[in-house]
Amino acid sequence: MPLPYVTTMGTKTRRGRTVVYNLHVHAVFVTKYRRGIPNNEMLMRCEEVMRRVCEAFEAELKEFNGEADHIHLLVHYPPKVALASLVNSLKGVSSRRPRAEFTRRVNRPIMHGRLSSPSYFTGSCGGAPLQAVKDYIARQKRPN
């Protein structure tokens, strides 16, 4: 069940029992050897699987899209989730399930048992630009 939302400073944020947060990450996963995902059906299946993984982590997959050799995700996740654990689960499950379901379309010897490359990109996003946060902190009054 999704956590309740609260509007703070004009932004829709999520609320837990003792925390209000708005954490988003942009993740990019690349296919093994940059070989393409054969079709849109397989890409849609990856999205379904990744949505379920996010739900298990109490996260929300906000956006999903991809090209032949990589996929992009925008995930809204709670602070109790270790980002590396979330990414590893997303990569692992999204690699195993579609590969098992689409065995004829995936060249197993080339993939060496994996659909995605072991590397990935993640970047935090959302909220104020970094310089705005730095300026805000610099303007705070120091205690006497």
TrEMBL record:
Transmembrane segments: none
Domain Transposase IS200-like residue range list: 20-140
Family annotation (Gene3D superfamilies): Transposase IS200-like
InterPro entries listed in its UniProt record: Transposase_17 (IPR002686), Transposase_17_sf (IPR036515)
Pfam families: Y1_Tnp
Origin: domain of life: Bacteria
Record's protein name: IS200/IS605 family transposase
